[in-house]
Amino acid sequence: MKIGFIGAGNMAQAMIEGLLTAKVPSSELLIHSAHPNHYEAYAQSKGIQAVASNLTLTQQADVIILAVEPALYETVITEIKPALTEEKILASVLTGISVAQLSTAAAISDLAIVRLMPNVNVKINQGMTAITGNAASQVTGLATVKGIFEKIGSVTELPEQHFSTFVALAGSSPAFIYLFIDSLARAGVKYGLSKAQATEIAAQAVKGSAQMVLEDGRSPFDLIDQVCSPGGTTVAGLLAMEENGFMTSVIKGIDATINKDRA
């Protein structure tokens, strides 16, 4: 199965590199973008096929993944429309562009259209991806694309009205978590650790804690209670964070992200 990427930005590269790490043959991956010097050099460095145009890519690929600037989606779909057939699957990772908008632009009733929202952790096969699709995709298209993205992380089917919430909880949240890790590390530096050592300690603690949430079965709040001894150091730290609005700040950040995505 040939997977074609239209666009060669950070997200396209993250998906491609995750698929290569997951042992998807490089011969199955195609790429084209508006900047030849960029995508051709990138394709060569990864051993994937650089294609001369979006139309040629669409003719050759079974699954076409749109990874361009959202404002360009109509232009790109108009360009590739002569090669879109019922045998193709059109998948989009474009923020803010709905399945209905993609369907209107393609104007092919039986074309499987899938909307995806991966996060950058697909690059290391630890991604979180939301997926939905049109009626035509329910036959095989949705399952095919879901199978591709399960190679590079977890996939959850979500109604499209929840995609903005997903953007905040999974798409933008790596940046929030990086900030948290960096804040922990800077506190370590304050008390004499090197930044590199403090960052490693904090990052591993976050990684292990996330894995515990996924595997233990108890809620995060229940797990907090397991760490907090009566009158101990952890509960003192938690209370200090709450006094300074830790949970409120996190929720406000999610609110701002959702509102911006919906704007």
From TrEMBL:
Keyword Cytoplasm: yes
Entry keyword annotation includes tRNA processing: no
Residue intervals of the Pyrroline-5-carboxylate reductase catalytic N-terminal domain: 2-95
Residue ranges occupied by any Pyrroline-5-carboxylate reductase dimerisation domain in the UniProt entry: 160-262
Alphabetic keyword roster: Amino-acid biosynthesis, Cytoplasm, NADP, Oxidoreductase, Proline biosynthesis
Name of one Pfam family that matches: F420_oxidored
One example GO MF annotation: pyrroline-5-carboxylate reductase activity
Coiled coil: none
Domain of life: Bacteria
Localization, UniProt: Cytoplasm
Similarity annotation: Belongs to the pyrroline-5-carboxylate reductase family.
Role this protein plays: Catalyzes the reduction of 1-pyrroline-5-carboxylate (PCA) to L-proline.
HAMAP family: P5C_reductase
Protein name per UniProt: Pyrroline-5-carboxylate reductase
Native source species: Agrilactobacillus yilanensis
Name of the gene this protein is made from: proC
